[in-house]
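Anyone opening a protein record will find just a pair of labelled lines. A complete record is shown below as an example.
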Amino acid sequence: AKLLNNILSPKSVWLISQHMRIWHLLLGEMRKHQKVTELLNHTWLPELVSLARWDKMGRKAGFFPNKSPLELSEILNIKAEKHFTGESKDG
């Protein structure tokens, strides 16, 4: 994530760097009180939980996309643009 510091927002870098760590918290594997409270009290915790949920939902054993990485990237960029500009699903 450190390589992304000059490219992405601090929030994006933090979410990327913490997106696997959240599972240790949720599964009760994170033992140090300081680490637990650091995550529980963090402003971006709701977004981190959502990211972990979406990551988990997006995984299917044995699934291989039938589109190239470039095609997938283009689809995701279009959907993100629609989402963040408030454009309806139909428009």
In short: The two ends are 35 Å apart (CA to CA).
